[in-house]
Amino acid sequence: LGASSGGYFVSSILPQAMQQVARQHASFRPLAGYVSEIMAPRDEDDTDISAKDNDDEQPLGAFITMDRDSSTRERVEEFVKTQNQRHHDTQQQQEQEQTRNDKDSPQGQDIYKHIPVGPLPISPMFFHERIPTISTYLSERLAYALRQTDKEGSSSLA
Per mean pLDDT, which range of 6-10, 11-15, 137-141 is the poorest? Predict the structure, then answer.
């Protein structure tokens, strides 16, 4: 088991960096969207998206969470709800001010989506069937270790 900062990079750092490059180089296409797995934005990321950049430049984002991880799921649900509402409010304000008429922008649509996923049964052949280089023996041991982790709260592959 381990930790990763990939979700933060994909959902926070990469979109902003690609937008900056796109503004500097006309031929560069900004990031259109991303998928972040098992990661909730940090509290400081819960800011007004329209304050970061032009609202239409925000890439679409999908957050996939595990049902069992209630803390992450709840933070993602709140982030998605808040950001989508801010997006809609910003669009409504722009329409009222009639500052632009961009027909290509997804007006009235959410820019973030939360996709919760349920548990996936881990059979003894689960890893071998998905990764052919994993032997049946190792697949059985990995599945056993995960079942023990689920029962005891800690794991040992020894």
Answer: 6-10
In whole angstroms, give the CA distance from residue 138 to residue 52: 47
CA nearest to 72, candidates 117, 112, 109: 117
Q: What are phi and psi of 69, to 5 degrees?
A: -90, 80
Rounded CA separation 33/102 (Å): 19
131 exposure class (CB count in 10 Å sphere: 0-12, 13-18, 19+)? exposed
Burial of 104 (0-12, 13-18, 19+ CB in 10 A): exposed
**Distance (Å, rounded) from C-alpha 47 to C-alpha 49?**
6
Q: Which of 84, 86, 2, 14 is nearest to 38 (CA)?
A: 2
Asked whether 49 and 83 are in contact (CB, 8 A), the reply is yes
Q: Would you say 114 and 102 are in contact if contact means Cβ atoms under 8 Å apart?
A: no
> What predicted TM-score, i.e. pTM, was given to this entire model?
0.62
Nearest residue to 44 via CA among 88, 85, 11, 2? 11
Tens digits of residue pLDDT in 61-93: 888 998 888 988 999 999 899 989 988 888 777
The helix (H) or strand (E) run that includes residue 112 is: strand 112-117
